[in-house]
Design goal:
This protein is α/β, with parallel strands linked by helices. The protein has 15 helices and 20 strands. The chain has two domains: about 80 residues, no CATH class; about 325 residues, TIM Barrel, CATH 3.20.20.370.
Amino acid sequence: MAENKKNMNKLKKKKNHSRKLKGILLVELILLLCAGGLYFLFLGTQKAPGGQDDTDYTEDSDDKDSKDGEDQKDKDNSKNNNLSEEELEIIKEQERLQQEIQERKDLIAKADRLALGYDYDGAIELIKSYQGAEGSFSVYTELNQAIEKYENQKSSLVLYGGSYTSVTQFNHIFFHSLIADNSKAFDGEYDQTGYNMYMTTVYEFKKMMEKMYEDGYVLVSIHDIAKKEKQEDGSTKFVAQEIYLPKGKKPFVLSQDDVNYYDYMEGDGFASRIVIGEDGKPTCEMILDDGSVVTGPFDIVPILDEFIEEHPDFSYRGAKGILALTGYEGVLGYRTNDPTSPTYQQDVETAKKVVEALKEDGWEFASHSWGHKNSYEITVDHFRRDTERWMKEVAPIIGPTDVYIFPYGVDIETTMGTYSSEKYMILKENGFDFFCGVYKEPWMHIKNDYVRMTRRPLDGQAMLQFPERLADLFAVEEVIDPERPPRDW
């Protein structure tokens, strides 16, 4: 019995010891699990956003990308450290060659853009300006092939695209401010008739440009048409220029009158002024009913810019259009006519910056007189004062211009011969050489001392009252805005 009792006590002690070991192991397991959980939790806080859990990450994705880049760079450096100098030189040379190849691709892409705008000489000169490690452009096959392509394209061009025999046959079309919100312009109020007659909607302008592009029309500058050239006897005179284009193309000039955004247009669905957008390019502002201001393609400048960006072959060497400005309510939507205004100086400076952006973008400027009076009817003294005021208030903002666009399209003279009036002399004294009126079809005089060119209006009156006059440009029914009211005058 005593022996059995002793054995039983030993077994009991062994069981108690076993339970203690199990307890210790369980505690250690729990501690390990806790430690592991804390470790993975720590790792989770280091993940970049986009992981599978919903943790609120604190590390920036840019920082993560930067670290990844640095890690890769460290790996590359580590790998390079294991290379011989000769192997490192080979890698360096390969990188240089790849960089030069990309440079030549970019150069050709830039030259292609020039060629699309018919500046083949500019494209060729750009390619020839290249200098690589192996030598000039001539040692690179792809550059020689590009030059050959441009020369072949240039050799296929024909004078005026074969569409005209003289610059005097070119169309010069013009518009006023575009209607961006039809519901406000065509609202049945007293000014609807005027808008219906003399304005064009954004919808219509886009359609017109599309149709003219499809028919082969190409924008040119009025200064591409005729230039003043020195003669053998030392005198100068205007001479018609030769413009070579692919067969079937048709050069034309475009202008826009009264780019001033007058007070009477406020709240009627028009842009309020031209500004420089976030991309550094000209765009428009428009004021909404609640007084907030939005930017966008609400008038000709940004719309045509975007169209030419998509269709560079619609513009000859970057030509855009002419913006004709009066002065009695400032310019481009800035009230630069009132020196007593508290914002006068700021408006002037801002307008100058916008003008520079427009010029860099290919736009040109013209005088549309200061007070928009009938140039034929007003007296010589009135005409002189008006011209002097425009030169004083507007010219310093837009810079020199030699283009004068008559208000209402009414010329200073009715002569079909040569200008000789005192009004003509006033304009010449102030540097004007190109004079533009309005007529139903192209008409042009190139004289020794000046160029006289008529323009065709593409407005509501032309579309609703004289659609047959536009048949050579497009079918009116294909461009007219379905929201435009019927003829109401």
